[in-house]
Write a structure and sequence with these properties.
- It is a single chain.
- The protein has 281 residues and is an alpha+beta fold.
- The protein has three domains: 39 residues, no CATH class; 82 residues, Pseudouridine synthase (2-Layer Sandwich); 148 residues, Pseudouridine synthase (2-Layer Sandwich), CATH 3.30.2350.
- It has five helices and 18 strands.
- The strands form four sheets. Strands 4, 5, 6, 7, 8, 9, 13, 14, 17 and 18 form a ten-stranded mixed β-sheet that branches.
- A hairpin with an 8-residue loop joins strand 6 and strand 7.
- The protein is globular and about 60 Å long.
């Protein structure tokens, strides 16, 4: 911002091409149109992600718990900007009611997500979680090729911010707490196909642990993952989502698996992997 520019975000938006729905960040933090701005402030405006609600598939439902397959690009919960989400779509399909995302996937991650309908189901789900009865299996593609065949990442994770103020998980960061991720290498090509099983549920746990181990996930720019890679035949491929997929959730009374998205299998094939590598997970 420069002297003489509008003194609110709303005023600034009025001077540029109109954006009907957008995400706004003031100095790296989420903001809204009424917020005041001063000379020297940085305002970033991004078009709101179009939620792929039509691609959301309900995989199973029992005793107030819904397991659904979330596509990459759809948020788990509705943000303050009011964008589409798994929760808002389930409320629409169910005709209202209380829906809570009991497991969350970042917007650019796909796979099985668990939502609870009502407080009784939410309390029961939290009891399962406390007893270690919520089991999740993820598949990921990382550039690190020097990982052992299997093992565990146990670096404690706390809160931090990157250079532009975005919140992230940081090893040994503020209020760090124990975190445990078990990993297994499924296959190796020009990248590594991993099976990841979190024993704890910290924010961005899998992404932060993989990056700390020297194997950031492809497409994960927040944690240093490459957003373009060279294919086996020399082409440069853009990676437009985080190469992380929740393949399965197992609960005491319900379990479900989500098909691997084509964009991930296509990426793996381009990197020299085989299509039959995925089912072995």
């Amino acid at each position: 911002m420069q002297p003489g520019d509008p003194d609110t975000i709303a005023g600034l938006l009025a001077t540029v091409a109109p954006v009907v729905r957008c995400r706004i960040f003031l100095n790296g933090r989420p903001a809204s149109p009424p917020d005041a701005i001063e000379p020297g402030d940085r305002v970033d405006v991004y078009p709101l992600r179009e939620g792929r609600t039509d691609a959301l598939e309900v995989l199973g439902q029992r005793d107030g718990v819904v397991l659904a397959s979330k596509p990459a690009g759809l948020a788990s919960e509705t943000t303050r900007q009011g964008e589409d989400s798994v929760v808002s779509e389930l409320i629409r399909r169910l005709g209202g009611g209380h829906v809570h995302a009991s497991t969350r996937l970042d917007a650019q991650v796909s796979g099985v997500i668990a939502c609870c309908l009502g407080r009784d189901a939410s309390r029961r789900f939290e009891e399962w979680r406390a007893q270690g009865q919520v089991k999740r299996t993820y598949l990921a593609v990382a550039l690190g090729r020097e990982l052992p065949d299997d093992g565990a990442w146990s670096a404690p994770l706390g809160r931090g911010r990157d250079r532009v103020g975005r919140e992230l998980a940081r090893v040994g960061g503020r209020d760090a707490v124990p975190a445990l991720t078990r990993f297994r290498v499924i296959a190796r090509a020009r990248a590594t196909l991993l099976e990841l099983c979190p024993a704890t549920g910290r924010m961005h746990q899998l992404r932060a642990h993989a990056a700390h181990a020297g194997a950031p996930l492809l497409g994960d720019r927040l944690y240093g993952g490459a957003t373009s890679v060279a294919s086996a035949d020399g082409r440069v491929l853009a990676v437009e989502r985080i190469a992380l997929h929740c393949a399965r959730i197992e609960l005491p009374t319900l379990e479900a698996s989500a098909p691997i998205p084509e964009e991930l299998t296509d990426l793996w094939l381009a990197l020299g992997g085989g299509l039959d590598d995925w089912p072995r997970a």
